């Protein structure tokens, strides 16, 4: 199998077009969707990328393969088959860029394949906080399964659930780290030198790597060809300012090849600098604007509805808000620097939501009045206010029709959203609302 330029040519066309002064020309390529094909492309001498739910980056060395990530439990076997069509070598070292299950869940399949071939188990390297993440996933298993179902749709469970086994968020056969590090770790495997760096970003256990011989950075989820996942409303704290600092540190190395865990690899020093620089700039500006508002005494509500990322950045294919979105990042920045209270004194110790809904419904003339107004607002395109009012109506009333209307309005709202996170929450709300109406 020879070196394929398809992925690199595709990313070059996108980055070049969207970096042009004045914006891209008509008909410019819009950018990738994350392809779960499990197809392998060789993008350098002894360097391959397997496109999957999260990609696997593979290096051939004289001692065996060095892999970055293992993809998910659902794609592990497909990834393994593609790797084996490229190289029969033992997997010498597996590096976890971080402990998210779509990056580690396929490790069991890699191990099983190696055992069938008589290979020794790989050395597994990750940051010292990866195992703490695994412990937390086991502790909050039900919560994380529910998040997955809500975010990606019913039936998207964890590893397991086959042959009568209970589904778990973290697959039971996930390989533990055999070696960890704190800040930096230099490795040499079969003539390949690698420099591992820890940085906070989407997670607190994230690793990015500099591979000098390829002038490449393997970056995990620091780059994913979407707006940075720094605000996920259902997950633990993210670190946008530290994320941007890591991107800036990568830039100082002047990499010529960018190897992300999602989206397209990018070749060319200027192109790589553009992508890394844009991501860093967007995060830096968000943090600066939110913290300026906090320092000026603004409430979270005021900041959420005033802080924005420039449209010219959000239009770029590597920054589009199709998974996370800036509004969620704003809230996470507030949480990081200001805690959970939003600055509204009534919200410090509020009444029960149902009690407030009943009171407001009585003042409005009943839940039906709220519901009717919500329907009008939804039809006019004001989905924020419509959903707030239908929420009050449903909480204050017992009529199944209110819950069906709630489902209708949240489905309408989901259709207007760009981010998968918002779509997932609103569609799940609609589904569960219809279920309640029928119960």
Provide the descriptors you would attach to this structure in a database record.
single chain, 439 residues, alpha/beta, Metallo-beta-lactamase, Chain A, Serine Threonine Protein Phosphatase 5, Tetratricopeptide repeat, 2 domains, 7-stranded mixed sheet, 6-stranded mixed sheet, 16 helices, 13 strands, 15% strand, globular
Question: Would you give an account of this structure?
Answer:
There is one protein chain. 45% of the residues lie in helices and 15% in strands. The strands form two sheets. A seven-stranded mixed beta sheet has the order 1-2-3-4-5-6-7. Strands 8-9-10-11-12-13 form a six-stranded mixed beta sheet. Strand 1 (40-44) and strand 2 (47-50) form a beta hairpin. It has helices at residues 6-18, 76-86, 101-104, 107-116, 130-139, 141-152, 240-252, 269-295, 300-304, 311-314, 326-338, 353-364, 367-379, 383-396, 400-416, 420-438; strands spanning 40-44, 47-50, 56-61, 64-68, 91-95, 123-127, 179-181, 184-189, 192-199, 206-211, 216-220, 257-260, 266-267. The chain is built from 16 helices and 13 strands. With 439 residues, the chain is α/β, with parallel strands linked by helices.
């Amino acid at each position: 199998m020879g070196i394929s330029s398809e992925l690199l040519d595709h990313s070059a066309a996108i980055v070049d077009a969207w970096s042009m002064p004045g914006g891209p020309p008509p008909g410019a390529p819009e950018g990738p969707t994350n392809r779960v094909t499990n197809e392998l492309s060789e993008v350098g001498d002894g360097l391959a990328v397997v496109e999957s739910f999260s990609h696997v980056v593979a290096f051939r060395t004289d001692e065996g393969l060095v892999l970055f990530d293992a993809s998910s439990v659902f794609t592990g076997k497909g990834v393994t088959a593609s790797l084996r069509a490229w190289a029969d070598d033992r997997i010498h070292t597996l590096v976890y860029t971080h402990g998210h299950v779509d990056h580690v869940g396929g490790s069991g399949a890699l191990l099983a394949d190696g055992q069938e071939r008589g290979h020794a188990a790989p050395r597994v390297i990750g940051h010292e906080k990866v195992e703490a993440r695994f412990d937390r996933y086991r502790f909050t298993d039900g919560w994380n399964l529910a998040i997955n179902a809500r975010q990606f749709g019913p039936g998207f469970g964890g590893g397991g659930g086959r042959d009568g086994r209970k589904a778990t968020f973290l697959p039971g056969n996930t390989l533990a780290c055999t070696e960890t590090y704190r800040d930096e770790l230099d490795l040499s495997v079969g003539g390949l030198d690698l420099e591992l760096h820890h940085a906070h970003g989407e997670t607190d256990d994230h690793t990015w790597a500099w591979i000098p011989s390829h002038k490449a950075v393997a970056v995990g989820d620091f780059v994913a060809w979407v707006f940075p996942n720094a605000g996920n409303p259902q997950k633990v704290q993210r670190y946008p300012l530290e994320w941007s600092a890591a991107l800036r540190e990568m830039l100082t190395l002047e990499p010529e090849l960018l190897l992300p865990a999602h989206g397209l690899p990018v070749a060319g020093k200027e192109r790589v600098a553009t992508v890394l620089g844009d991501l860093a700039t967007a995060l830096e500006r968000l943090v600066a604007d939110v913290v300026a508002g906090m320092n000026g005494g603004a409430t979270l509500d005021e900041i959420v509805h005033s802080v924005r990322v420039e449209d010219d950045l959000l239009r770029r294919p590597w920054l589009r808000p199709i998974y996370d979105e800036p509004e969620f990042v704003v809230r996470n920045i507030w949480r990081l620097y200001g805690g959970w209270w939003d600055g509204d004194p009534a919200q410090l110790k509020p009444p029960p939501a149902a009690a407030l809904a009943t009171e407001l419904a009585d003042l409005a003339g009943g839940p039906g009045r709220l519901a009717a107004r919500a329907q009008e607002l939804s039809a006019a395109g004001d989905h924020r206010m419509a959903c707030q009012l239908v929420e009050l109506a449903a909480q204050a009333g017992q009529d199944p029709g209110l819950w069906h209307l709630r489902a209708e309005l949240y489905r309408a709202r989901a259709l207007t959203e760009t981010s998968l996170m918002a779509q997932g929450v609103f569609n799940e709300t609609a589904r569960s609302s219809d279920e309640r109406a029928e119960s």
